[in-house]
Amino acid sequence: MSLRFAARLDRLGTEGAFEVLAQARRLEAQGRDVIHLEIGEPDFATPENIVDAAVRAMRDGATHYTPASGLMPVREATASYISKRTGVPCTADNVVLTPGSKNILLFALLALIEPGDEVILPDPGYPIYSSLTNFVGARPVPLPVREGNDFRIDVEELRGLTTERTRLLIVNSPANPTGGALTRADCEAIAELAIERDLVVLSDEIYSRLLYDGEHVSIYALDGMAERTILMDGMSKAWAMCGWRLGFGVMPVPLAKRMDTLMINSSSCAASFTQLAAVEAFESPLSDAAVDAMREEFQLRRDVLVDGLNRIPGIRCHRPAGAFYVFPNIEATGWSERDLARALLEEAGVALLAGTAFGAHGAGYLRLSYANSVDNIGRAIDRIGVHLAAAPAVH
Ligand SMILES: Cc1ncc(COP(=O)(O)O)c(C=O)c1O
Mean of the per-residue pLDDT values for the chain? Predict the structure, then answer.
């Protein structure tokens, strides 16, 4: 039988990192040595005290369904974590727990966006923003994020992109794939525009604990914004818990209630023992110390990678403020980003991503993740330098 698929599936995109990882694994299966700088996942183990909390929870019987938006004490702990970080007096009623933060994005789009509405999103940006916007039948409007502006949003440019149909603005600070972070002045200007144009803002703060320079400013904390902001965050990056699948959203209560219904109709709930482990992540000083140690190690790697790339002729690498990615400009090598990414994987054994995997404005850039050891980062820099020296851009 030939299955006939729904047209909506043709509107879904993908994540380049998963595709390149699969190609890299095929090369490794043929005996090739590949250094993985394509991955968007911390290489650290989850802190032991958090693992212990999950094991304890399971042994104590936390193996059942929970309420759809999460266990009340976990939602309370999440609200108090976000209140402490933002100063906004949110409560459990504002919180929805989902299996990974991606679901918060999907549910926000399903709950708020009609076909034909416009969603402004960063370009280059996390590819799932435009994929899911297309999926719900809305129009993604790319907002260029430029190296010359430290990979921050230009608020005047943003203003020029808003129309009568703009319903939602997605911001991501610190950002994947550029590592750029918004300043307080940026956030204030964005908030002013959002209020003036009556926009909802989805603020993806999944990398907020991985900021090396400056203060993390949450747009949710600014005057008049809590009522129009969905703060999206999760356990994956800060606590090295990608595989645990727990994300959370903090939002106005009426929207949280709608997301509860979406959870009832999809996952039923996030895993119970994963939820309980999150309380340990939020509240234990041991967890804070682990996050600090991971951040310090990431910062060291960032500097090794940025300095190493900048020593290679033709590459210019901006030092990003946060997350665990660099986004070097490779235009002066004469290579296109797609050809160079392919050649570095197939010929040099370095897996990384073309900037255009994150939108058209990624042309001329590569994305490298530094969720790998200093040793491997050093070996990758050597391989990239040798490859470019041996194969100058006749391509
Ligand atoms: C910017 C951004 N947002 C959201 C996510 C999704 O994280 P999770 O679903 O694991 O919470 C990622 C993962 O790579 C990301 O880079």
Answer: 96
Report pLDDT for 394. 54
Q: How far is CA 211 from the centre of its chain?
A: 13
Task: Give pLDDT, residue 99.
Answer: 98
pLDDT at 14: 82
Express each pLDDT in 333-371 by its tens digit: 999 999 999 999 999 999 999 999 999 999 999 999 999
Instruction: Please check whether residue 367 is in contact with residue 344, taking contact to mean a CB–CB distance below 8 angstroms.
Output: no
**pLDDT attached to residue 320:** 97
Domain span at residue 377?
7-45+288-390
Task: Output the DSSP codes for 74-106.
Answer: HHHHHHHHHHHHH-----GGGEEEESSTHHHHH
**Distance in angstroms (rounded) separating the CA atoms of residues 382 and 378:** 6
Residue 393, pLDDT > 70, answer no
The reply to whether ligand 1 has any atom less than 6 angstroms from the CB of 46 is no
123: CA distance to ligand 1 center in Å?
16
Phi, psi of 200 (to 5 degrees): -90, 140
* Domain end position, chosen among 283, 303, 322: 283
371 lines ligand 1 (CB under 6 A): no
Whether 54 and 274 have beta carbons less than 8 Å apart is answered as yes
Number of domains in the chain: 2
User: Residue 133 has which token pair?
Assistant: 């916007």
Residues 71, 27 share a domain: no
User: Is residue 113 located within the same domain as residue 206?
Assistant: yes
The pTM (predicted TM-score) of the whole model is: 0.96
Ligand 1 atom at shortest distance from the alpha carbon of 175 = 1
Establish whether residue 172 lines the binding site of ligand 1, counting it when its CB lies within 6 angstroms of any ligand atom.
yes
Q: Kindly state if the Cβ of 176 falls inside 6 Å of ligand 1.
A: yes
The Å distance, Cα 313 to ligand 1 centre, comes to 33
